[in-house]
Prior knowledge:
Layout: H1 3-8, E1 12-13, E2 16-17, E3 29-37, E4 41-42, E5 45-46, E6 53-61, E7 66-74, E8 86-97, E9 102-114, E10 122-131, E11 134-141, E12 151-162, E13 166-177, E14 188-200, E15 203-212, E16 228-236
Amino acid sequence: MNKIAAVLTGGALALGVATAAQAQEAGPSFSANVGVVSDYKFRGISQSDGSPAVQGGLDLDFGNGFYLGTWASQVDFAYGDDETKFEQDFYGGYSGAISDTVSYDVGYIYYAYHGSDWDEDYQEVYGSVSINDLTLGLAYSDDYWAATGAFYYPYAEYSFALPADVSLDFHVGANMFDEEAFLFESDSYIDYSVSVGKDFGGLSLSASLVGTDISDEECFGLDWCEPSVIAGATYSW
């Protein structure tokens, strides 16, 4: 479960969280990943002030559908001296297959932020169903980032296999809030992405167009929500 992949396609996992069912093996197995992106965007909004970020994670697959993992990234919310330095996520869940064409994934993720006195931590539960190359999912938080209230995130993704083992991925998500606390005058926004990627053994290279329908004025007066092209490289072992 690699949140770097989710970031590049605009979802975190695609929550900022990836939701592909994991292969079930004979026993537990560990994996790790480390990478860099030209801009860390989560659900369409820059988390690194438009700058590159180093990221990495560890995963434990129990071989029976259950999994646990952690993932971290540099962040920069432009606070000044009282600056959040990095995000660390902890997650666990269960994935499985109903048939050769239908799979599912359900789980829990806790987002922790370090380096600032601000209360930014929050939790989500998530679930998705994949039918061939189409994935439909939903994430829910009872109190979203910086205590901005209940949050719902339905999303859809579709993947194409292109020649030369190149992948083409589409993502769209609806960010829906119970209150107008996260944004200034709106209780919802749309994020989207179009990504291409290719694997070279353990190295994965990606390029993504990631954006939202939020104006600069609504986006904290910054350009973090504008469409931009993000390049990324991840090595997994």
